[in-house]
Design goal:
The protein contains 12 helices and 10 strands. By secondary structure, it is an alpha/beta fold.
Length: 340
């Protein structure tokens, strides 16, 4: 029987695994994307995550294509059976300059309104269950951003709001601002959290537990690294970080180095060995780890091909023992923060 969890203090009842869709339209064509979504539904998954910026790698000519593919697939489906999350692109002053709205993005009222209207149209729905800030804005006051998000909730275009790629300070400040103004708050935070990147445990986990805000981990298998494929003698050139490393893009090269380096390869090999001892796939171990914590509502998985989902879905039947968690903690204490 499927276990369900609630996001934050909301009525969003979600499966412990969420289907990530950032490959739809780039690494996964429309036909394969449909297969991936069909397989997720067949396995009982009710929670899908997307963004106006998708697919990745971000390109101006493709932005929004993922939502269009999901919108086509949604036709004929019972919309109320699914929890759909999307995101407004973060500010151009932050993580990187997104190739939409002429690179002028900001988390202000204008851009939030434009973004949600576009997403609703592409998805072919009149509401989004969880609408998230893809990454923070270091210039626009959080009060302005939250008031704009709150308007969407009041208008019924969005049920709840969340943040992503945020810090303990950012999440706490936003939460206290919402309390002070009496408006909608961020019910979730979608951050990178995995065996190779346990930084969420340092501070953010405590904020989430104290304030009843849910973590929605992305990259639970470290962008594919924790599958062990980068530890093999031959690594195919069409793997994500091989592609990134070969691009003339400093951000992509830096991301490849962050995910694939001597420390991540060493820890990954240890996790591959541990998974072998447990008789499970290293992917299953990685996904089960990210689902293990009480502050996690749902773990976001992804795939280029439908058949790749099986090992992740196997985590639904796995509960890691205290002994296994101690083994993991030992590895993490011996090789600290392999992703920096």
């Amino acid at each position: 029987m499927m276990e369900y969890r609630y996001i934050g203090k909301t009525g969003l009842r979600v499966t412990p695994i969420c289907l990530g869709t950032m490959s739809f339209g780039s690494w996964s064509d429309e036909n394969e994307s449909f297969k991936i979504m069909d397989k997720a539904i067949d396995r009982g998954i009710n929670f899908f995550d997307t963004a106006e910026l998708y697919p990745v790698p971000p390109k101006a000519e493709y932005a929004g294509l993922t939502e269009e593919i999901i919108g086509k697939w949604l036709k004929g489906k019972k919309r109320e059976n699914l929890i759909i999350a999307s995101k407004v692109a973060g500010a151009a002053n932050g993580w990187f300059v997104p190739p939409i709205r002429n690179g002028m993005t900001a988390i202000d009222k204008f851009h939030i309104k434009r973004a949600v209207e576009g997403s609703l149209k592409r998805l072919g729905t009149d509401y989004i269950d969880l609408y998230q800030m893809h990454w923070p804005d270091t210039v626009v006051p959080i009060e302005e951003s939250l008031l704009a998000f709150d308007e969407l909730v009041c208008e019924g275009k969005v049920r709840y709001i969340g943040t992503s790629n945020d810090s303990a300070y950012g999440l706490t400040k936003a939460n206290e601002t919402s309390k002070r103004l009496g408006i909608a708050r961020f019910e979730s935070i979608q951050n990178n959290f995995s065996l190779n990147n346990p930084r969420f445990l340092d501070e953010l986990a405590e904020v989430c537990k104290k304030e009843q805000i849910s973590c929605l981990p992305y990259s639970p298998i470290g962008g594919g690294v924790l599958s062990g494929k980068y530890n093999m003698d031959y690594v195919a050139e069409d793997t994500r970080f091989c592609e990134y490393a070969m691009q003339n893009n400093p951000r992509m090269k830096a991301m490849a180095q962050r995910f694939v380096n001597n420390k991540t390869l060493e820890t990954t090999q240890r996790y591959v060995n541990l998974a072998k001892e447990l008789g499970i796939s290293p992917v299953t171990l990685a996904v089960a780890y990210s689902m293990h914590f009480d502050f996690v509502a749902s773990t976001i998985i992804g795939a280029r091909y439908a058949h790749q989902l099986d090992a992740s879905f196997d985590a639904l039947r796995i509960k890691l023992s205290d002994e296994t968690m101690r083994e993991i903690q030992k590895i993490q204490s011996e090789i600290m923060y392999p992703m920096g």
